[in-house]
Amino acid sequence: MSDRKTVFIVDDDDFVRTMISKLVASFGYDTKGARDGMQAIEMLSASSPPDVLITDIVMPRKGGLETVSELRAKYPALKIIAVSGGGRSEQGDYLELARKSGADEIISKPIDPSQLKEVLKQLMGKQ
Amino acid sequence: MRRHLAKAFPDGDVNIRTAGTGVEGLQLINSRSFGCVFLDYLLPDMNGLDLLRSIYDAKTDLASVPVVMLTGKGSESVMLEALRWGAQDYIVKDNISFHSLKIALTKAKEVFELKRNRAMAEEKLQQAQKMEAVGQLTSGVAHDFNNLLSVVLGNVYLMQEQITAPPGKMDTNALAEELTAIETVARNGAELVRRLMLFSRQRQLASQTANVNDCIRDAATLLKASLGATIEVAMILAEGLPSISLDVSEFANVLINMSVNARDAMPGGGKLTFETGSIVLDEFYAAQHPEVKAGEYVMVAVSDTGTGIDREVAHRIFEPFFTTKPPGKGTGLGLAMVYGFVRQSGGHVDVYSEPGHGTVFRLYLPKAGEPDRTEAAPVLPEPVQPGSIILVAENDDEVRGTAVTMLEKLGYRTLQAKDGKVALDLVKREQAAIDLIFTDICMGGFDGVELVREARALLPALPAVFTSGYTEHTVRANKIAPDDDFIGKPYHQEALARKIHVALGKRKRENV
Ligand SMILES: Nc1ncnc2c1ncn2[C@@H]1O[C@H](COP(=O)(O)OP(=O)(O)OP(=O)(O)O)[C@@H](O)[C@H]1O
Ligand SMILES: [Mg+2]
To answer: I need a surface site. Which of B283, B288, B367, B372 has the fewest CB within 10 A?
Structure first.
């Protein structure tokens, strides 16, 4: 078993997911990815949980908010970063809602690579 | 007249003004506000309908004041026209009494108020919907652009890391990949802007004279290859279509957008059909669709055999960013682009859908050279038997209303039914009194085809004319026999007159 940390990325936009994966890899972490919350939950239950999960909020099938609260309940130690391009639902701003659902950090799009690097470093340190 | 009015309102609480000519009347109407205008059809300088038309506002479907038309006996067509151009009521001159005037006045004022209030409420609603669309537009664009910028920023970061790497360790393959990613999303961004601009009418179309059939053939070649083997592409292109002025590359985009939508609506495969034809959209159609100018058009129909569009969302599909597809699958700009294109081309788009069966989009593009419509009165064939009774079965109230108005104008009498069952009951009750059934094919449940079959079990020679929002080709292939009479929606009065005439004629022949 390597001691490299793993980051799991959930985003329905292929370009964005690929880009985040490459960035995260360049920061020195292993990466895995899924297209939506449903797929993410399936994949997670089939293998050992990652250290950090980065998820988009507006996605098909299972949206980000639901995914966050479900994962929070299932994996209390998992660090979660919610990412959103802005927008709000009737209940309020997506990023605020994500925090309430149990996300440890929130990042708004467009993603600033240096900020992402910082946030990941902090969350890994906390473990 | 004045005498009757004075008698109807003796206490002088009604202020009466009179005008002897149309011009005087117009001046008076425009100079102050009146509670009601009694308008004679026969004026020395113009007819009352002309005056009415000049104060008619299509947006509210009202004249500027409540109007009661005064006509001679037996001028039903004048009365109908008056009602169509915003009059609330009419009185036959021979029947004028202070009593009838009083009733007409009260009714005209009431109906006018109700209708004006409704028009105002509708306008407010439209405004609200527009604002909602703008809100959606902003957040939709923001979302897509933020994604796109994330990709650009991320890749730029990676490239910066690369170029600061020690010499010899620079990975040029990775650099090339990152550049490509940036280029691709930038192009996607440009496409997004282009579609938006077209929708908001900022971009001018580069029009040229072209033949829509050729454009469709070109697009179909491309589509056959890209839509996948489960989707059959068919073309039924009318001979001798005139060339029209259009932006060929945008038109290709329009066809592709509609085809992609059709494909998405047919996940298990199906048939995509392009059909073209020449069509006249008449005053009736124009009256129902305020953005349409009556005239000659080239019609392009794109039909699919897919899921259809739910009634609840049908009125929203042309809104920018309205989509029922998951994020990433649809941005909701396809039909907004189609709408923008059609409006900029001076045309009209219309959709007909049966949930579970399929959808037809029809584009109407004006024929080049703005046909001058100097209102040559259409030559109507004489009805076979004026007063023949036609049973009109149609579930859409508005469409049925128009059909009935057209038929009555042609001199027929009508019976109405809002579905197949009601229609069949009428057939059973009226039996031989009915001369012809004019029926929609799809009316939910008991359809037009069944109706005619059952009706003919009782009255074997009963003539029938079918109509449908589907194209004739589709209907003939699936629903009705080759010798059945059919007229596609939207139909205009002249064509309807001809169809009915022919169908009624058939019975005559069969009876001898
Ligand atoms: N042929 C069709 N059959 C069924 N539904 C349709 C059809 N065409 C359009 N729609 C409905 O109208 C909506 C809006 O269509 P539109 O083309 O504007 O956006 P979209 O297809 O969702 O996204 P985009 O075209 O931007 O990729 C669709 O999401 C779909 O619900
Ligand atoms: Mg589309």
So the answer is: B372
Question: Could you name the CATH architecture of B2-120?
Answer: 3-Layer(aba) Sandwich (3.40)
The domains located in chain A, with CATH, are 6-122 (3.40.50.2300)
The residue in chain A having the minimum alpha-carbon distance to the alpha carbon of residue B136 is A87
Torsion of CA B210, B212, B218, B219, to 10 degrees: 130
Q: How many whole angstroms from B168 Cα to the centroid of ligand 1? A: 50
Contact B502, B487 (CB under 8 A): no
- Contact status of B58 with chain A (Cβ, < 8 Å): no
Closest ligand to Cα B349 = 1
Q: Same CATH topology for B2-120 and B389-511?
A: yes
d(CA A77, CA B125): 50
Give pLDDT tens digits for B458-467: 999 899 999 9
**Per-residue pLDDT tens digits for A5-47:** 999 999 988 889 999 999 999 999 999 999 888 899 999 998 8
What mean pLDDT is predicted for residues B179-186? 91
Q: What angle do CA B221, B476, B381 make, to 5 degrees?
A: 110
CA nearest B487: which of B427, B497, B477?
B497
ipTM surpasses cut 0.90: no
CB half-sphere exposure, B227, CA atoms < 13 A? 31
Q: Are A22 and B158 inside 8 Å of each other by CB? A: yes
